[in-house]
Amino acid sequence: MELIFISPEPVEPVLESKNDPASGKKRFIMNSSADIESRFRDLVDYLPVPVFELDGQGRFCYANRRMCEAAGCGPDRLLGMDISALFSPENMEKIKSILLAVMKDGKSIAHECEIMIGGGVSLPVILSINPVTVSGAVAGIRGVVTEISERKALETEIRKREERLRRISDMALEAIVFHEKGKIVDANKAFTEMFGFNLDDLIGADLISLAVPEYRDIILDHVRCRKTGPCEIRAIKSNGTVFDLEFISRVFIEAGKKYYAVVGQDISHRKKVEYLQDHDELTGLYNGRGFSRKLKDMIRTTDAKGVRFAVMCIKIGQEAYSVIKNLDPALEKILINAIPLEIAERLNSVLFADDVIARTGETEYMTLNLLPAENDSRKTMKLINKILDVFSMEFVNGIHLNVFAGVTFYPDDLKTDNPNPVINNCKYACGEAVSRDRNYMFYDEKSYRDTRESMEFAKDLIISVKLENFKNFMVHYQPKVNSAGIIVGMEALARWSHPRWNNPGCDFVDASRFIRVAEDIGLIAEIGNWVLEQACGHTVGLHARDARFRNLQVAVNVSPSQLNAEFLEYLDRVLKATGLPPEFLELEITERESVKEKNAAILSAIRNRNISIALDDFGIDYSALSRLPKLSIDTIKLDKSYIEKIAVDTDYEKLVNYTIKMAHGFSYTVVAEGVEFKEQAEKLFSEMECDKIQGFYYYRPLSMDEYISVLEFNLFGKGGGREGNK
Length: 726
Description:
The chain is α/β, with parallel strands linked by helices and 726 residues long. The protein is built from 24 helices and 26 strands. The strands form six sheets. Strands 19-20-21-22-23-24-25-26 form an eight-stranded mixed beta sheet. The chain has a five-stranded antiparallel beta sheet with strand order 10-9-13-12-11, sandwiched between helices.
């Protein structure tokens, strides 16, 4: 809507219509002012905008139809009305001052205000006031008023959206700054808190001024929209603190308007965490994870360029650390921190510029050393000697440290894209150096393969016992026979079946192997207890099967680790749970364990329970016959190493014969193990009066079902001697 102020002064004659002789068309010439004014008023009256005139007192002297409609009254009422009726008092004061200024200075003025239209509605407008001059003097005022309702509504909506955008940005955890061509125009609360500035201090500042100088070009690329992806820079807080900032450029569009913003977050903590993931916090060296990553990169580079490198594992001897940990706690803490720092410093002093060093454990370090392409390890030897030299000097507080090193070469020893096997190789070599008390050793494939196989064997044994609850274990029984060939008892033997470790052509793992490993890894007592439970239960089952089986006694091997007070309690529980009378159980122990004073009370307690004790493998340890009277046992079992020689060596024959007679003299029962030939059996029974024999000449170890079949054949008159073993 526009309002046009028209000067009330008369206007000179303007045009008159006449024919043009040249063109034959009519043309207008000057005519009377009354005609012109009449035409003009008719034109203005039909304009779609309010038009009015004011007299010198500010009263309406003319108003067109649109003006009357806007004012909500007819021309009779409007004419003569003061213009102040259309403006609020505060607006009217300003308008009066503008009118006077235009009249005085003769310059046009535009003013935004509100007028009151029909019904008391306030309408926002822009009022343009222009002077009308006559003969060079200001004679009146002409003005244009433009309705701006739509524009004001749009401005209000934009302002609301901007306020909403600010509220949302202030709620965001990320720092957000708005800019125009790199100049900051606004920022949210998180941004001001992150940098430590007041918002007023930031407005108008260059965005790049917040970055460390070497990172400012990166920000410029984002401001100029050459880059839009995530980026990391170093930024500066108001107090000068430098921190890590990750940011990304964003463009927001609200109500058709573009807002350029940078969204960022302080990643200093994350960067520190990432650093500590790959570095040792105390020394600043790479840790195990970081070293593995560097090694993987080196493998990739090596495969591409064909270079070689050595990986070295360095272990510090534990003796010095044991001494340190027995010191005063305050001094211990100082030394525990000081020594790794000094070790790191010394290792860095002897490493080459392109080498990598890591602290992978409390007393373990690793290095990565590039080598010449040709097969020349002199560089590694030089480094090893330097390391030994620096460790030969005393450390803080006069402490000396011994060091061991293991080295593997890539790709000479192993070619792989996985760093772990390479690390394992050098750790294995270092472990060999420690176990052999040597300063350093190089990786040996055969030795490592044997060790690795032993570890895998032990792992599978642990799984079978612990996780699978003896799933692949079973108990076999080797019969014992008397001189008539009648079965009078059996020895329970553990058997383990594993498809990877079974003996060739056999369904079981070599018993001596898994028993030895079980002793090494601490499983032997658990396996021994399981065998005891199975043997007692099976024997009770045999006794119940037939009256002629009721005199059979079962022998079970007991390991040294089982001989303790807890074993006595366990033994009582097993006998009670299975119902086996104690006189039908015999426990076999080694000669070495039988003579230990600490076991005397336990062995005595076992015999007091009416359980027999047999001395297994007699003759291979102490072999002192003078000890026989002092042993708390019932039976001795002659080791097969003696038995296998009695038929070919008269000295052994005399020794075994004499041992049997001495044992009988002390009322011991004698059992010969490992009897495999007829000559051995005949000498033992006929010439030496041995009480019992067990061995492959009579029977191999049998499953319980096989053993029952053999018993029925042997004891029920169906055969005897060796017939049941065929």
